[in-house]
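To the team - adenosine-5'-triphosphate complex, inputs and output below.
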Amino acid sequence: MVQDSSLVLTALVKRYGDTVAVAGIDLKIPSASYCCLLGPSGCGKTSTLRMIAGHETVSSGEILLGGKYITRSAPADRGTAMMFQSYALFPHLSVLDNVAFSWKMRGRSEAERHKRARELLDLVSMGALAQRLPSQLSGGQQQRVALARALMTEPRVLLLDEPLSALDPFLRVQMRAELKRWQQELGFTFVHVTHSQEEAMALADQVVVMNNARIEQAGSPREVFNAPRSEFVARFMGAHNVIDSPAGPIAVRADRLALHRTPVPDAREVAVRAVEYQGTCVLVKVSPVAGGAETFWTASVPDAVFDAGPLAPGETVYASWPARDAHALVA
Ligand SMILES: Nc1ncnc2c1ncn2[C@@H]1O[C@H](COP(=O)(O)OP(=O)(O)OP(=O)(O)O)[C@@H](O)[C@H]1O
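Output:
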């Protein structure tokens, strides 16, 4: 039977003296799903993760794993394992012994622990390097070992704190795909802290956008990207314009903002301010003529469309968007 690895956070609060790091959040993370906690520095992501792990006490509120309260359980008794930003491998132990370490602490025999460690090293494609020392591995390889070591404790929930931030951009994209594959193969819950919206969109079943110790919005990457609820989410997810309309602020995706040379109904007159070539598209930055020079909107124009009618800074054009692509934002 597959174990229930769902997580529920209710009215969870973390205070450090006068600082409120997490201000009473409610969140349900379904069993066997990939959840990304996303937000700017200091918004409370790591504090949330550390409370789930039991590395930080909860000021108030509750945490349930698989329907059982774990709020006050010892870290080792929770069914969670944490993979850290720095991989924190023991430098003097081989890869195999690093992975087997937690079973040594539990008094399991060498044959038993090495057998399981080898299985996990094979899972993360590191079986061939089992006898190396951590210093003889690349960053991506060290990360695989750190993952195998976390899995050795047989968690139901794996907690990952910025696991890709130390890798170069090429490796980051490769390891991202592997994390997703491992999560699907293992079939348990991953909670991954990141400040990269691109990473969260690529990985998550559920993206949880945090700001100022609270959850601004939680949903699938498509829901959060296509229908941001607040100005903060629209700006943080990027590729959106926040536009004042008579009914209040709206978000319009940059690729849904159309530019016309002649007026069309409901269009706003705008001045082209800058043109940035991006390869597959061209970003055209415009300012509404009636809106002040410090307001900028961006239209993302496919390169072939732009090439058919190039625009240059200083030109005046007309910006419009389909009504269905205007998402009302809460203030
Ligand atoms: N041990 C601590 N003592 C006092 N304040 C803390 C402590 N840990 C975190 N904080 C504060 O709590 C708030 C949330 O911090 P947290 O580390 O959870 O944010 P974060 O979103 O993970 O940020 P980052 O992306 O920079 O890691 C911040 O204002 C931070 O300064």
